[in-house]
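Appendix B, record 7
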Amino acid sequence: MTMWRAAYAVSSRFAHRCAAQPIVALACSSITSRGTDAAAGNYNSSLYLRTFSSQGNRADYLCVHVFVSVKPGSEDDFLQASLENARASSLEEGIARFDVIQQEDDPTKFVLVEVYKNGDAPAAHKGTNHYAQWRKRVEHMMDEPRKAIKYKNLFPATRDGWDYGADANLE
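Structure tokens (predicted):
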């Protein structure tokens, strides 16, 4: 049974379960009851969810937001150093994304959005020369110790939604 046949096989009587399962909810919104096997009654949202996520494209990524406050007057230097680090980091095998963002109403505040493909990737990143150079270059610019918060991604749920790849035009 193909993925689409499995999707059409989900009966509308299971649609109420979609609200609790976002991936299924997205799929259920475009599913008709056509092709259901009412006699067998084997189709439910759990079966569909397993079928949908068995495609091997699921992104169980670690997202780390690093909050940085820099001393006034060092914003441009910090930004340049962080952009150089981000460019090199985005080429690492274990990194799906590496974003540098700056707060609009306070230019001394930055967030580094680091999205890692696996649990080993953060340590591998911290072992690179470009990370060591970045740390050394920016340590005197910090107004306070940087703070990292780890998140589990929920959406996009696939690697395609996160990975921009080595040939992407990022600037």
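Remarks on this record: The radius of gyration is 22 Å. The chain is about 30% helix and 20% strand.
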